[in-house]
UniProtKB/TrEMBL annotation:
<comment type="similarity">
    <text>Belongs to the gas vesicle GvpA family.</text>
</comment>
<keyword id="KW-0175">Coiled coil</keyword>
<dbReference type="Pfam" id="PF00741">
    <property type="entry name" value="Gas_vesicle"/>
</dbReference>
<keyword id="KW-0304">Gas vesicle</keyword>
<dbReference type="GO" id="GO:0031411">
    <property type="term" value="C:gas vesicle"/>
</dbReference>
<dbReference type="InterPro" id="IPR050530">
    <property type="entry name" value="GvpA"/>
</dbReference>
<dbReference type="InterPro" id="IPR018493">
    <property type="entry name" value="GvpA-like_CS"/>
</dbReference>
<dbReference type="GO" id="GO:0005198">
    <property type="term" value="F:structural molecule activity"/>
</dbReference>
<dbReference type="InterPro" id="IPR000638">
    <property type="entry name" value="Gas-vesicle_GvpA-like"/>
</dbReference>
<dbReference type="GO" id="GO:0012506">
    <property type="term" value="C:vesicle membrane"/>
</dbReference>
<protein>
    <submittedName>
        <fullName>Gas vesicle protein GvpJ</fullName>
    </submittedName>
</protein>
<feature type="coiled-coil region">
    <location>
        <begin position="70"/>
        <end position="100"/>
    </location>
</feature>
Length: 101
């Protein structure tokens, strides 16, 4: 009589594929203190997921980071130019008010 064992073996590729498909969140806090006085708190959040999964859950910060995306530079430049224009207009309006007083 032979005994059969059903053993599943996962390669690192299989595990990585599952992790990237589903995503993994690792979270933790590190607190440094002396005599019950909290000096520093470091919050660590790590998400490991595929780009598609990250976008699916609303994480796409790299698209607006100018160090990681050339599109972000154009977007940020336009936003800064618009903000500068609005600030100049506000400054002009304030100067006009001061001149009329």
């Amino acid at each position: 009589m032979a005994v059969e064992h059903n053993m599943q073996s996962s390669t690192i590729v299989d595990v990585l594929e599952k992790v990237l498909d589903k995503g993994v969140v690792i979270a933790g806090d590190i607190t440094v203190g002396i005599a019950d006085i909290e000096l520093i708190t470091i919050k660590i959040r790590l998400i490991v997921a595929s780009v598609d999964k990250a976008k699916e859950i609303g994480l796409d910060w790299w698209e607006s980071d100018p160090y990681l995306s050339s599109k972000a530079i154009d977007h940020n430049t336009k936003a800064i130019e618009q903000e500068n224009k609005e600030l100049r207009e506000r400054l002009q309006a304030l100067e006009n008010k001061l001149e009329t007083k």
